From TrEMBL:
In the C-terminal section; belongs to the purine/pyrimidine phosphoribosyltransferase family. It comes from Vannielia litorea. This is Amidophosphoribosyltransferase. Keywords: 4Fe-4S, Glutamine amidotransferase, Glycosyltransferase, Iron, Iron-sulfur, Magnesium, Metal-binding, Purine biosynthesis, Transferase. [4Fe-4S] cluster binds at residues 240, 386, 443, 446. Pathway: Purine metabolism; IMP biosynthesis via de novo pathway; N(1)-(5-phospho-D-ribosyl)glycinamide from 5-phospho-alpha-D-ribose 1-diphosphate: step 1/2. GO terms for biological process: 'de novo' IMP biosynthetic process; purine nucleobase biosynthetic process. Signal peptide: none annotated. It catalyses: 5-phospho-beta-D-ribosylamine + L-glutamate + diphosphate = 5-phospho-alpha-D-ribose 1-diphosphate + L-glutamine + H2O. The gene is purF.
Length: 465
């Protein structure tokens, strides 16, 4: 998901809509915006589909006045997966004795089922099926006197990944879980401040990037400025390495590094680790593009756009049903026959999950007359599901959980298939010595199976690690 918030700008909700538009790649199912102004109180709008279709109409934006606003774009990882109902669309709102608060959450709470059970037994009335709603109910039960302190109380009971943007009548609040699994950045714009999942959304509204919200930090922003709090016991951070590979936009800066440059470096590592003789390096657009550019630069094999992407389609993986996903590949990608014919082609993609994309693309490339097809993948084999906010399927559907690399190559029907090593990936994100096996610098559970936070709900449901 993507989260964005603004304080101190007139018509703040308009800036939030723009920010969410720049974060649309993080969630395309639905979006919501809440705003507050002293005259009208809190207002909200939730809509299915793209921000650019829902939140540009003046009639709607007029219903969201005020200097303070937050928003969320949704990609279902919990709750009604693939079947989003409007009641599951964030931000969620709660009314407390000291006033209302709205929260927007990116990540996934790993003990949400247990918390929900406990809260329902104690009288909470849930409105949605979302894990994030627990936070509001935990806040309602807190005895603290102000809302940020209630949030601190609530979040100390929550496990898993959370980057949260919240608002009260007068404050904009940002928090990251102690491991800092999901990104969150602070920006300054005119007299106002903003919080965003990624820096690319600061650029769109002309905000200046101030800094990242640190793992385990809470920032409380008012007219008087930014106050930093430390609600949690400090831990060594474990940022999601897959944000670098795929999830974030290439024009964003993560941990001081350009995502584009990191992806190019991944491509260069991949070319060193898994060279092959060929005539053309071709990305699976758009997610494989920077890595393909790096692979080509390192190997000296020419880069070409052998697959053309229809710019009007979203990310296929995020369309929730298998049927749509299957069609999606062809709706989205087409082969550039003139370039491919007779060539030995290296296809570079960011990841293989179910193998749907790679299989279809291989067929399309061979139909177009390629002499050979070699796949090079910019991440290690995805063999484990993510429980921290990326919607990977269960193990039975993950190709790499059920096959060796050679079996995968056979299954996909390609001449060769190679993945970057986990150490190679760490080098590409700037860890010169690779992965520290005793204390890994990132979360890489979907590749390693080493989960930095025990997925309590999943274990309860019988998930075997
Ligand atoms: P597959 O077709 O193998 O199931 O999925 C791989 C494709 O999905 C890649 O092209 C990748 O760009 C895309 N993708 C989109 N979202 C995700 C995600 O959340 N996780 C992973 N691993 N791949 C994703
Ligand atoms: Fe990121 Fe993978 Fe960890 Fe999920 S399991 S947070 S996708 S590295
Ligand atoms: Mg892709």
């Amino acid at each position: 998901c993507g989260v964005f918030g603004v304080i101190g700008l007139d018509q703040a909700a308009n800036f939030v809509a723009l920010g969410l538009h720049a974060l649309q790649h993080r969630g395309q199912e639905a979006g919501g915006i809440v705003s507050h102004d002293p005259e009208h109180g809190f207002n909200s709008a939730r809509r299915f589909g793209y921000v650019r279709d829902s939140f540009t109409k003046a009639s709607l934006m007029d219903t969201l006045p005020g200097l303070l606003s937050i928003g969320h774009v949704r990609y279902s990882t919990a709750g009604s997966k693939g079947n989003t109902q409007i009641r599951d669309v964030q931000p969620f709102f709660g009314e407390f004795s000291m006033g209302g608060a709205a929260i927007a959450h990116n990540g996934n709470i790993t003990n949400a089922a247990a918390l929900r059970r406990e809260l329902i037994e104690r009288g909470s009335i849930f409105q949605s099926s979302s894990d994030s709603e627990c936070i509001i109910h935990l806040m309602a039960r807190s005895l603290q006197r102000d809302i940020p302190a209630r949030m601190e109380d609530a979040l100390r009971r929550v496990e898993g990944a959370f980057s949260i943007v919240a608002m009260t009548r007068t404050k904009l609040i940002g928090v990251r879980d102690p491991l800092g699994v999901r990104p969150l950045v602070l920006g300054k714009v005119g007299d106002g401040w903003c919080l965003s999942s990624e820096t690319c959304a600061l650029d769109i509204i002309g905000a200046e990037f101030v800094r990242e919200v640190a793992p385990g930090e809470m920032v409380v922003i008012t007219r008087d400025g930014v106050e930093s709090r430390q609600p949690f016991r400090p831990k060594k951070s474990r940022f999601c390495i897959f944000e670098h590979v795929y999830f974030s936009r290439p024009d964003s800066i993560l941990g001081g590094r350009s995502v584009y440059e990191t992806r190019e470096a991944i491509g260069r590592e991949l070319a060193k680790e898994a060279p092959v003789e060929a005539d053309l390096v071709c990305p699976v657009p758009d997610s494989g593009t920077p890595a393909a550019i790096g692979y080509s630069a390192e190997s000296g094999i020419p880069y070409g756009m052998g697959i053309i992407r229809n710019q009007y389609m979203g990310r296929t993986f995020i369309e929730p049903t298998d049927q749509i996903r299957n069609m999606g590949v062809r709706l989205k990608l087409n082969v550039n026959r003139a370039l491919i014919r007779g060539k030995r082609v290296i296809l570079v993609d960011d990841s293989v999950v179910r193998g749907t994309t790679s299989r279809k693309i291989k067929e399309m490339i061979l139909d177009a007359g390629a002499a050979e097809v070699h796949f090079r993948i910019a991440s290690p084999p995805t063999a484990w599901p993510c429980f921290y906010g990326v919607d990977t399927p269960e193990r039975s559907k993950l190709l790499a959980a059920n096959m060796t690399e050679d079996e995968m190559a056979d299954y996909l029907g390609v001449d060769s298939l190679k993945f970057i090593s986990l150490d190679g990936l760490y080098r590409a994100v700037g860890e010169a010595k690779g992965r520290d096996p005793k204390s890994p610098q990132y979360c890489d559970a979907c590749f390693s199976g080493e989960y930095p936070v025990e997925p309590a709900d999943m274990i309860e449901q019988g998930f075997v690690m």
